[in-house]
Every structure is written in structure tokens, then in C-alpha cells.
């Protein structure tokens, strides 16, 4: 297996070589035990997070996780086992356990590795690994400074719901007996600030945060504090709307969830189990003609980038929706075989899902809407994947003539996802940089708002 060494220090390089050797050893043991085919994954993850609240350190949490997982096939029988102990004796026991399970399992004609021609050992360098040279004590100081600045900005910020700083790095390898193999080194760093504003008896909470691969891209803590303060203050004196039908904008803080529900509905495991409201939707007009939904797995340094999926299949820029029409489903190898189709290299989900914009920023969308509801927070899990019925608690702002009038809460927004998708009027260009789905705010022509 070839290793990309960009941004990787000698210690990590040495560890990677050891993990690659471990994978090769496990595959050899599996073949020795009689497995027809096998796949092995290794991980070595570590990092820490700190939490402070009201100028006091609440938690300092360290994590280190090192393990190996094995899947073996005896013909069309499958078994699996994993271990956090990577000693030779433990690895041998793990391999035997996986093989023993496979020998007594029911055969399934769809079991097996993805086709050999889909495998590769050559993968693009995606610039995902940028360690942050920060100690827990330094992270605590960052968190305390962020909170202190936030509390100093307005006397109505009476309490803190906590400031968190975290830094994690992950080293993940995969190899199988069809010749597929690869190694991914990645990092993820974040700072979040949650505040409570009070005026009279009314108390409201809101937050801001930043999540990046490279620490130099972290938003300045003064800006995070300022944004969290502004958001918390803007929630004061929230009202409950009367029940009505109205246009709704899902801000980019929450809009990715709409398209997450769509991806779930066209995912193979839900389709072959008949747990989807979009069965047989390929070729169907599910969205307006201006909608294009696709993935960009090879974006440099992006949160959702990946060179290969969890089955070793090289990722590619799939287009799921073009001109509003579903082009194909989201498939891993097993679900593809169940549906007599080919894998789309999405066994572990989509990578940097992207929804093209057809409008400007949030201000432009507010002008387009005129009067209606801007949703900035959603509560509950009220999405029925089988029927498409959608009902979730919400809070946000009431808008008139394109201008925010007052905050609202204790309401529910409801509809059916099929109707909601068809009723999308515009998608903004205000992409939320802190999530892997690249989507701006979404304006929907009409939804039910349940309130007073």
C-alpha cells in the first residue's frame, strides 16, 4: 500500500506503517483460516475537549481509540469481529471469531466484497490533516477568554451555557483481498459558545461555533462571542404565532436537514426495505427544475471529503438530482446488489453533498419571501421516512416586507416532504461552513405553522 505523506510527521508515518502491516497480517490470517475473501479496517483516533462555564473549568476530556475490525466471507456467508487489543494473540482470536461466525451464518447472495475493478490503491491527497499545536491548558485559556469577552459585551448576557474547545485527529486505514486499500489522516477542531440573555423574566439561549480541518481557519473567538451575543439578545421577548399557512425560510443553520431527509429517502437500505417515500423515484421530478444536488468528495480540506468509502470503493462526484429529476440512488455494495444495481461508493453516506444556489444571501431571500417565517432552530425528530410527513418544533423570527419583526418560539412547522421539495422557491448562497452539507438557506413557498 502506498502512503501519502504530505503534512504527516515522522511519528505518524511510523504509526501508519505499523497499521498497514497489521492490516496485511490480519488479511493473511483470514485467508489461512479458509476465508474466501476478507476486509479489514483499522483506526487510531485521539484528541481532547475542554468545557468552561461562568469562568470555571467544567470538564477536560481526553480520548484515545485504537482498534481493528474484520469482515470475512466464506462464499456467501459473512462474519465479523473487532478488537481494541492488537497483540498477535488477540488478532488471531479475532480472526477465528469472525470465521466461526461466518461458518454458521445464513448465506446471502448479496454478501461479498465490491467488484475488483472498483478497487484502487491510488487515492488523491485531500489535505485533511492539520494538527493543532494546542495544549489542554491553552485550550482552557481560549475558552475562558471567549466567554469573558461574551459576558462583557452586554449586561443582558447574564449567564453562560458553556464554551467548548476541542481538537481531534483520526488515522483510518482499509484493505481487502480484492486489492483495495487506502489510508486517511484527518483532523477536526472546533470552538463553540452558548449564552443566555435575560431581560426581566424572559431568558433566551443561543450560540455560535466554528468547525474546521485546519486550525488557522478557526473563526476568531471575539467574533464567535459577538455573534453568540447578538443571537441570544435577538431571541428576547419571543412570541408564539397563531396557527396559519405561510412561506417559510429554513436558515442555513438548519437547511441541511431537509436534504439529509432526501438522501435518506433515496438510500439503498431504506429503498429495498420499502422504508421510503421515494421508492421508484429515479427519473421522477421530485424538485423544481432549478435544483441540482450532487456530491464533491474530493474537495481540498473540506469536512465531508473522502477518497474512498467504507468498502474501499473510490469515491466520485455523483449527481443525485439534475433539473429537479432524481438521477440515481445512494448505494453501497450490498444495497446495490439487493436492487440489481451498481454501488455509487456511498456505503458510508454522501461526501460534501452540495445544493446549488439560485439566489443571493439570506437578506435577498427575506426580500423574496416578503412576509413569513424564518426558522433558525428545529427540535424533535418528526420526520416519517415512509410517508414523508414532516412536523418539527421550531423557533426563529417573523418577517414582514422582507424585514425581521420579532422572534418567535413554541411553534411547529409541518408539511409533507414531497410537497415541501416541490415548493422550494429559492436556495441562498449563504453556505454554513461548519457542516459537511454545502447548502444555503431554503425558501419554501408554503407550510403549515401550528401555534396559538
How would you explain this protein's 3D organization?
- Helices cover 24% and strands 35% of the residues.
- With 452 residues, the protein is α+β, with helices and mostly antiparallel strands.
- It has 2 domains: 10-234, PmbA/TldD fold (2-Layer Sandwich); 244-450, no CATH class.
- Strand 5 (181-199) and strand 6 form a beta hairpin.
- Residues 1-6 have low confidence and may be disordered.
Alpha-beta classification: alpha+beta
CATH level-two architecture of the largest domain: 2-Layer Sandwich
Q: Under CATH, the topology of the largest domain is which?
A: PmbA/TldD fold
Low-pLDDT regions: 1-6
Could you give a quick summary of the protein structure above?
With 452 residues, the chain is an alpha+beta fold. It is built from 9 helices and 16 strands. Helices cover 24% and strands 35% of the residues.
Amino acid at each position: 500500500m502506498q502512503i501519502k505523506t504530505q503534512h504527516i510527521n515522522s511519528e505518524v508515518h511510523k504509526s501508519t506503517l505499523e497499521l498497514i502491516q497489521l492490516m496485511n497480517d490480519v488479511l493473511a490470517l483470514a485467508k489461512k483460516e479458509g476465508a474466501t475473501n476478507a476486509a479489514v479496517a483499522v483506526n487510531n483516533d485521539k484528541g481532547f475537549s475542554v468545557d468552561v462555564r461562568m469562568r470555571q473549568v467544567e470538564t477536560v476530556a481526553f480520548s484515545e481509540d485504537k482498534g481493528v475490525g474484520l469482515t470475512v466471507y466464506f462464499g456467501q456467508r459473512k462474519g465479523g469481529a473487532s478488537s481494541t487489543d492488537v497483540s498477535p494473540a488477540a488478532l488471531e482470536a479475532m480472526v477465528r471469531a469472525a470465521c466461526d461466525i461466518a461458518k454458521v451464518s445464513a448465506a446471502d447472495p448479496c454478501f461479498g466484497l465490491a467488484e475488483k475493478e472498483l478497487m484502487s490503491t491510488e487515492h488523491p491527497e485531500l489535505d485533511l490533516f492539520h494538527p493543532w499545536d494546542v495544549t489542554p491548558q491553552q485550550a482552557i485559556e481560549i475558552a475562558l477568554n471567549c466567554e469573558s469577552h461574551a459576558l462583557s459585551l452586554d449586561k443582558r448576557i447574564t449567564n453562560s451555557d458553556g464554551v467548548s474547545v476541542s481538537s481531534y485527529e483520526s488515522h483510518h486505514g482499509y484493505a481487502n483481498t480484492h486489492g483495495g486499500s487506502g489510508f486517511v489522516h484527518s483532523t477536526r477542531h472546533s470552538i463553540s459558545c452558548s449564552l443566555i440573555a435575560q431581560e426581566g423574566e424572559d431568558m433566551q439561549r443561543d450560540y455560535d461555533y466554528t468547525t474546521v480541518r485546519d486550525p488557522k481557519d478557526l473563526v476568531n473567538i471575539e467574533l464567535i462571542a459577538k455573534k453568540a451575543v447578538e443571537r441570544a439578545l435577538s431571541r428576547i421577548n419571543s412570541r408564539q404565532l397563531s396557527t396559519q399557512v405561510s412561506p417559510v425560510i429554513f436558515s442555513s443553520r438548519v437547511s441541511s436537514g431537509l436534504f439529509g431527509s432526501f438522501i435518506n429517502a433515496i438510500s439503498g437500505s431504506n429503498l429495498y426495505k420499502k422504508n421510503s417515500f421515494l421508492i421508484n423515484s429515479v427519473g421522477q421530478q421530485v424538485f423544481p427544475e432549478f435544483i441540482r444536488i450532487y456530491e464533491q468528495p474530493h474537495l481540498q480540506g473540506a469536512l465531508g471529503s473522502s477518497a474512498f468509502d467504507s468498502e474501499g470503493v473510490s469515491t466520485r462526484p455523483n449527481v443525485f438530482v439534475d433539473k429537479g429529476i432524481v438521477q440515481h440512488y445512494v448505494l453501497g455494495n450490498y444495497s446495490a446488489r439487493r436492487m440489481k444495481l451498481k454501488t455509487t461508493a456511498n456505503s458510508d453516506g454522501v461526501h460534501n453533498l452540495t445544493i446549488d444556489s439560485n439566489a443571493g444571501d439570506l437578506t435577498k431571500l427575506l426580500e423574496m419571501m416578503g412576509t413569513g417565517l424564518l426558522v433558525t432552530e428545529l427540535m424533535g425528530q418528526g420526520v416519517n421516512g415512509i410517508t414523508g410527513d414532516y412536523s418539527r418544533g421550531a423557533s426563529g423570527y417573523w418577517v414582514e416586507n422582507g424585514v425581521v419583526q420579532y422572534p418567535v418560539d413554541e411553534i411547529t412547522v409541518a408539511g409533507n416532504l414531497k410537497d415541501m421539495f416541490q415548493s422550494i422557491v429559492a436556495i441562498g448562497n449563504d453556505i454554513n461552513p461548519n457542516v459537511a452539507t454545502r447548502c444555503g438557506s431554503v425558501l419554501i413557498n408554503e407550510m403549515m405553522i401550528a401555534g396559538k
